[in-house]
C-alpha cells in the first residue's frame, strides 16, 4: 500500500490507504463487488476515524482532491491485484461536493485510462442529499456515468430524504439499505416493515437492492427470503487491505 499524499491540518504525516469490503450475491454468496473505503493512518500506525476525516474533508472542500486520489488509487490497486475477475465489480463512494465538482468527469476518466479498468465494472455510491437541490448538472453527471456503462446506487437508503416517488425519475440503478434497518430487523417489527417495503418498491421500479451491515445468519436468511440481491457486512468481512481480495475470490469460486 502506497503513501501518496499528506493531509494537512493533522498531526504529522497521514498515509491514505484503500480498504475493501466484499459485497456478495445473496443466494450464491459469490463475490459480486468490493466497496472501496478510505483509511487514514498516522506515521505512528494509528488509524484515524474515517467518518470524521471524510466529514472534515467534505466541509473544507479537500474532498475533491482526496476523492480524486481515492478513485485513482482504488482503480489502480484493484487492477494490479488482478481483483477484476470476470464478474467482479468495484464500488466507490462519491461525496456530494465531489459529485458536483466540474473536475469529476476528468478525475474518473483519468483513473480509468491509467488503470485500464473498464467503466462497466464500476458502481458509484451517492447519498440522497445529492438530490436535494434537484440540480441539472448533478443529474447530467449521473447520466454520463450510466451512458459510459457505469452504475449508480443510492447509499444509506432510508436515512435521508427517502421519497419513493423521486426514485423513479432519477438516473440510478439500485439502492443500498442503510445498516440501521438491517441491524434491528430481527428484533424490531418496524425495522422489518421498512426493509420489506423498501425491497417491494425497489423491485417494482427495477432497482437492485444491497443490504448493508449484515451481521448474522438470521438477517441473511430474512434478506434472502425477501429476495434482496446483494449482501454486505461483518457476517462476511469487514473492509480489509487489497492483498486479501484474492482470498474472497477463492472462497466464492
Ligand atoms: O468504512 P467506514 O465505516 O469507516 O466509513 C465511514 C464513512 O466514511 C462512511 O460513511 C463511508 O461511506 C465514508 N467513506 C469511506 N471512504 C470514502 C470515500 O472514499 N469517499 C467518501 N465520500 N466517503 C467515504
Ligand atoms: O456510509 P457507508 O455505508 O459507506 O459506510 C460504510 C461503513 O459501515 C464503514 O465504516 C464500515 O466499516 C461499516 N460497516 C460495514 N459493514 C458493517 C457491519 O456489518 N456492521 C457495522 N456495525 N458496520 C459495518
Ligand atoms: Na458506501
Ligand atoms: Mn452505506
UniProtKB/TrEMBL annotation:
Domain EAL: 1-253
Superkingdom of source: Bacteria
Name assigned to this protein: Response regulator receiver modulated diguanylate cyclase/phosphodiesterase
Protein's organism: Roseibium hamelinense
Span of the entire protein shown here: 489 to 741 of 749
Amino acid at each position: 500500500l502506497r503513501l501518496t499524499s499528506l493531509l494537512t491540518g493533522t498531526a504529522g504525516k497521514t498515509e491514505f490507504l484503500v480498504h475493501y469490503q466484499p459485497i456478495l450475491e445473496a443466494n450464491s454468496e459469490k463475490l459480486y463487488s468490493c466497496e472501496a473505503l478510505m483509511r487514514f493512518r498516522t506515521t505512528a500506525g494509528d488509524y484515524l476515524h474515517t467518518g470524521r476525516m471524510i466529514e472534515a474533508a467534505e466541509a473544507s472542500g479537500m474532498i475533491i482532491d482526496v476523492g480524486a486520489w481515492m478513485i485513482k488509487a482504488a482503480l489502480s490497486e484493484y487492477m494490479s491485484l488482478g481483483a477484476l475477475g470476470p464478474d467482479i465489480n468495484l464500488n466507490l463512494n462519491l461525496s456530494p461536493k465531489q459529485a458536483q465538482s466540474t473536475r469529476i468527469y476528468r478525475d474518473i476518466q483519468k483513473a480509468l485510462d491509467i488503470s485500464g479498468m473498464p467503466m462497466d465494472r464500476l458502481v458509484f455510491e451517492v447519498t440522497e442529499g445529492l438530490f436535494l437541490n434537484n440540480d441539472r448538472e448533478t443529474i447530467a453527471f449521473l447520466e454520463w456515468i450510466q451512458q459510459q456503462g457505469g452504475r449508480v446506487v443510492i447509499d444509506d437508503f432510508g436515512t435521508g430524504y427517502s421519497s419513493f416517488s423521486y426514485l423513479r425519475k432519477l438516473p440510478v440503478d439500485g439502492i443500498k439499505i442503510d445498516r440501521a434497518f438491517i441491524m434491528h430487523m430481527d428484533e424490531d417489527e418496524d425495522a422489518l416493515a421498512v426493509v420489506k417495503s423498501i425491497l417491494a418498491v425497489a423491485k417494482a421500479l427495477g432497482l437492485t437492492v444491497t443490504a448493508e451491515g449484515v451481521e448474522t445468519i438470521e438477517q441473511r436468511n430474512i434478506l434472502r427470503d425477501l429476495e434482496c440481491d446483494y449482501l454486505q457486512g461483518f457476517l462476511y468481512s469487514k473492509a480489509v487491505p487489497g492483498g486479501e481480495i484474492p482470498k474472497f475470490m477463492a472462497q466464492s469460486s
